[in-house]
Write a structure and sequence with these properties.
Distance between the termini of chain B: 42 Å
Strand content of chain A: under 5%
Number of strands of chain A: 0
Oligomer: heterodimer
Shape of chain B: globular
Helix content of chain A: 55-70%
Largest sheet of chain B: 10 strands, antiparallel
Number of helices of chain A: 9
Helix content of chain B: 25-40%
Shape of chain A: globular
Number of domains of chain A: 1
Structural class of chain B: alpha+beta
Radius of gyration of chain B: 21 Å
Number of helices of chain B: 9
Number of domains of chain B: 1
């Protein structure tokens, strides 16, 4: 047996085992943090997450096999220290894409403009929504956590996760406006990239 | 495309961590693990214990970092105020640079591969429950096959990692326990044949000096002073001293086996400008080949990082770390980590 829980249990007796958890999940935590706030923040958040996790081994809920909700929960708390970096990034994305939207339109450029416009609008919506909704939405879309995983990471009931996600997606859709959406693909948009713990 | 899919694609192209970044985080973690284990079992140790911990971390860090292709150290030693390498070391390095330029690089024809054969020994340390640290050496050999067109697919065959040298009975028992736990899947998978376009194994390009390898080979300055200044700048406050870290950076770069003669020469000349670099051994033997070892002290003078150069051809034979005092159960004057590099041209890759 070699689940995350097994590693965590073993590392209580022989701490060096904990490094295996880093090898397993560090790049995922890094990538999530980098998407949200850039490489500089990701570097800091990733190493601090595992230090904090190691020192708080007892805070791991043994009912879980997968350590990712726990790790993302820690990473989320640590990343809040860098909320300005995320705000700057979203602001820049909203701006840079709308600048590209002025380019002359051939068909190819038009497609690019559409993507750029969508990105700019997404950035604007993310920036506009309450932090707690953004947190929930991105743990779902970028960290690939399940509803239960997000509930574990944020320490709230699954029902709360559901209502926060609904609210956040409403804001997204409103913000996207005239960009063509194909709602028939799937109810939860899971077709393109199924999460590993679905 | 619905809103969630659009969101999933947003910034999906960012966030692949550099191996060096992950290695640094891992070292930090190992440092904390080591410190925690010691303070938990020896609550009254005080400053002496802290030094033991620091040394342990240095070794664990070295072992872990080598695993990921960089060498990062933890202690801090005051830098020496000397103007450059000793005259003797500078002469060896500058001659090696001249030889490197005279000896042409092996020619790899289309369809052929440059084979970089690496024999490596790493130190592993384990802090035991009662607070003592034991160490042992593990070997892991490997071959990298670089296609004539370097942007093509590289092949890396990594052989099994095997504990080979033990320092006492306890060391052997810990090593066996550790290997058993790794084989049960607790550790990262480190053996087998791995492929990567342009040398990007594990989906991320190999880096030297924080630059993707192929780009670095093209763009790094060939003027030694400029190169060394860039090395200092890129390393920042990483490592023990800027000087030892600079030589480590040069050793890391050279052991890729793909540094062309002109850049290799510039690296030797840059090493000749590093204060504290000495001729450590005129008759150094590594993996059966003889060369001159150029070294710099680190870990408060308790260890030395060497690069071993063949003065005839200007090729780097390898690099090694030598203990000058007993460290975590490793006796003094032991090469507790080394890499020997051999280059040839072959017609096929696995």
């Amino acid at each position: 047996m070699n689940t995350d829980r097994d590693i965590i249990r073993r590392s209580r007796d022989s701490p060096a085992e904990f490094a295996a958890l880093y090898d397993r999940h560090a790049s995922v935590i890094y990538r999530y943090a980098a998407r949200r706030a850039g490489d500089f923040v990701a570097d800091d958040v990733t190493s601090e997450t595992f230090l904090a996790a190691f020192e708080g081994l007892d805070s791991f809920d043994e009912r879980w096999e997968d350590a990712r909700p726990w790790l993302f929960g820690i990473a989320t708390n640590l990343r809040r220290r860098h909320h300005r970096a995320e705000a700057r990034l979203l602001k820049a994305m909203a701006r840079s894409a709308s600048r590209e939207a002025g380019v002359d339109s051939t068909e190819v450029v038009a497609a690019q403009v559409d993507a750029a416009t969508a990105t700019a609008r997404l950035a604007k919506s993310l920036k506009a929504m309450p932090a707690i909704d953004r947190e929930t939405l991105l743990l779902y879309a970028w960290a690939d956590l399940s509803y239960e995983g997000i509930a574990g990471a944020m320490g709230v009931p699954v029902g709360t996760v559901r209502s926060r996600l609904n609210r956040a997606r409403r804001i997204l859709r409103t913000g996207l406006g005239p960009v063509k959406l194909d709602e028939t693909e799937s109810d939860h948009g899971r077709l393109a990239a199924a999460p590993r713990n679905a | 495309m619905d809103d969630l899919q659009l969101l999933r694609e947003m910034r999906s192209d960012v966030g692949t961590p550099a191996q060096a970044t992950l290695a640094r985080g891992r070292n930090k973690l190992l440092g904390r693990i080591g410190a925690g284990a010691d303070s938990g079992t020896m609550p009254d140790g005080g400053p002496r214990r802290r030094r033991v911990v620091a040394r342990r971390v240095v070794l664990a860090a070295a072992a872990a970092a080598v695993l990921l292709g960089t060498l990062v150290a933890v202690d801090v030693v005051a830098p020496g105020g000397k103007p450059g390498a000793t005259a003797e070391a500078a002469e060896v390095l500058n001659n090696a640079a001249a030889a490197a330029i005279k000896t042409s690089d092996p020619v790899v024809k289309p369809g052929q591969y440059l084979k970089v054969d690496t024999k490596a020994v790493y130190a592993s340390s384990m802090t035991r429950a009662q607070g003592t640290t034991v160490s042992w050496l593990e070997t892991q050999d490997g071959q990298v096959y670089v296609p004539a067109d370097r942007s093509g697919e590289w092949v890396w065959n990594r052989e099994a990692r095997v504990p080979t040298t033990f320092f006492g009975k306890e060391s052997k028992a810990e090593a066996q326990r550790y290997v058993a736990s790794m084989n049960s899947g607790a550790g990262p998978q480190l053996e087998g044949v791995i492929r990567g376009k342009g040398g990007a194994f594990y989906d991320s390009p190999q880096q030297i000096l924080g630059l993707p390898l192929l780009e670095a080979i093209k763009t790094l300055p060939r003027e030694p002073r400029k190169l060394l200044d860039l090395i200092y700048k890129k390393n920042g406050d990483k490592g023990q001293t800027p000087e030892s870290e600079a030589l480590v950076t040069i050793a890391d770069s050279l052991r890729t086996g793909v540094i062309p003669a002109d850049l290799r020469a510039a690296m030797y000349k840059a090493a000749a400008l590093i204060p504290g670099v000495i001729v450590a051994d005129k008759q150094a033997t590594l993996d059966g080949r003889k060369g001159v070892a150029l070294g710099i002290l680190w870990a408060e003078g308790k260890a030395r990082q060497d690069i071993i150069v063949d003065p005839e051809t200007g090729m780097m034979i390898g690099e090694r770390n030598v203990s000058l005092a007993a460290l975590d159960g490793i006796p003094a004057n032991t090469a507790f980590g080394w890499t020997a590099v051999k280059i040839s041209v072959v017609d096929s890759a696995p």
